[in-house]
C-alpha cells in the first residue's frame, strides 16, 4: 500500500470550501480566477487512496502568444497541510508538477504561504532605529519555522528557483508580510501594543469627528467612484500606477458574489460627508486582509487613514479573526530608504513581520522559462 496522492479537478464550490476549511488565502478562491480575466484558471484537489480530499489549489495559466504554453501559477498557494508537506514534499509537489506539465505549462510557480521566519514588533522597531541595519535580513529572526525551513531546503534541492528575490516589491505576491495577531486580544490591548503616535492619531480622528462606515450594496456603486478618486489621488502623490475603476468593480462582484465564503468590505472614513480615507479589506475564515488604502490631502490633521485602519482592526477582532493581515512590506529599513516608511507604519501599529516560504519556479521547459525571465527583466 502506498501513500500516493493524485490531482483531480473540482468544482468552484469544492475549491472554495477547501480553501475556507484550511484557512487558505483568498487568492486561492475561485472568485480570484474570475477576477484575473487575462489568465485562464483551473481548480484542483489532492486526493488520497481513500478518495479523501487532502488539499486544494487554484492554478492560473498565463499563455505565451502563438506558442500556447503557459506559466502555471498558484498565488499564495496551494492550500495544503504544510506541517505534513514538510515531511515528504515530493508526495505533494511531484503530482502538481506532472499535472502542470500535462496541461502544457513551461513552468510551474508555487506561492507557498507557510511561514519560514518571523520578527517581533520590538525587533523590527530596534532595527529601524539602528543606523547599521539596512535590511530586515540584517536582524536575527525571533523564530524559525522548522516546516518552512524543510520545505525551502527541498525546493532548492529539487530544481525550484526563487521567483520573489528581487529588490523592493517584486512581481507576484510579497515574501515579507506584516500581520497583527488578534489572538486573545481586546481593544485595550491592541491600543497598548501600538506606538504612542498611532494612539494619538486615533484620538485626533475621534476628536475631529471622523466616522467610518462600510459600503452597503445600495451605496457601493457611488462609494466605489469616491474610493477610486481618492485612490488615484494617492497614486499621484505616492508615485505608483493606479488600477482602473473597472478592476475594483470586478473585484467587488467576484469576491462578494453570492455563495462566496469571503466578504469584501469597502470602509470609508469621513467628516461631515467628506471622504478623507478608505480601505478595501477581505475576510475569509479567521483572517482579515487589508488590501488597498487611499487618502486625500485634505484635512490631514484629522488622521482619517489611522481611523479607517483602527475600524478594520476592531471589526476583525469583533468577528473572531485571529489575524489582521496588513500585507506586504520590503526588507528595506535604512533611514534614508523611502520604503522603510511602510515598514515603520505597520510595525508602529503592532504588526510582526513574517517571511513566507514564498514564490518558487520549477522550469518544465528551460528554454521557454529563460526566455520568459528575460522578458520580465527587460519589462522592468
List keywords for this structure.
alpha+beta; Peptidoglycan bridge formation protein FemAB; 14-stranded mixed sheet; 2 domains; Aminopeptidase; 380 residues; cell shape; acyltransferase
Overview of this protein structure:
The chain starts with 5 loop residues before the first strand and ends with a helix. It folds into 2 domains: about 5-115 and about 140-170 and about 355-380, Aminopeptidase (3-Layer(aba) Sandwich), CATH 3.40.630; about 185-320, 3-Layer(aba) Sandwich (Aminopeptidase). The mean pLDDT is about 95. The protein is globular, with a radius of gyration of 21 Å. The chain is α+β, with helices and mostly antiparallel strands and about 375 residues long. It is built from 13 helices and 14 strands. It has helices at about 10-20, 30-35, 80-85, 90-100, 120-130, 145-155, 185-195, 195-205, 220-240, 245-255, 305-320, 340-350, 365-380, and strands at about 5-10, 40-45, 55-65, 70-75, 105-120, 145, 160, 175-180, 210-215, 265-270, 275-285, 285-295, 325-330, 350-365. Strands 1, 2, 3, 4, 5, 6, 7, 8, 9, 10, 11, 12, 13 and 14 form a 14-stranded mixed beta sheet that branches. Keywords: Acyltransferase, Cell shape, Cell wall biogenesis/degradation, Peptidoglycan synthesis, Transferase. This is Peptidoglycan bridge formation protein FemAB. InterPro entries: Acyl_CoA_acyltransferase, FEMABX, GNAT_dom, PG_Glycine_Bridge_Synth. It comes from Arsenicicoccus piscis. Belongs to the FemABX family.
What is the secondary structure topology, with strand pairs?
Layout: E1 6-9, H1 12-21, H2 30-35, E2 40-47, E3 53-63, E4 70-74, H3 82-85, H4 89-102, E5 105-119, H5 121-129, E6 143-144, H6 146-157, E7 161-162, E8 176-181, H7 187-193, H8 196-207, E9 211-214, H9 220-238, H10 245-255, E10 263-271, E11 274-284, E12 287-295, H11 304-318, E13 323-328, H12 340-348, E14 352-363, H13 366-379
Parallel strand pairs: 4-5, 12-13
Antiparallel strand pairs: 1-2, 2-3, 3-4, 5-6, 5-14, 7-14, 8-13, 8-14, 9-10, 10-11, 11-12
Helix pairs in contact: 5-12, 8-11
Family: Belongs to the FemABX family.
Domain N-acetyltransferase: 210-374
Pfam family, one: FemAB
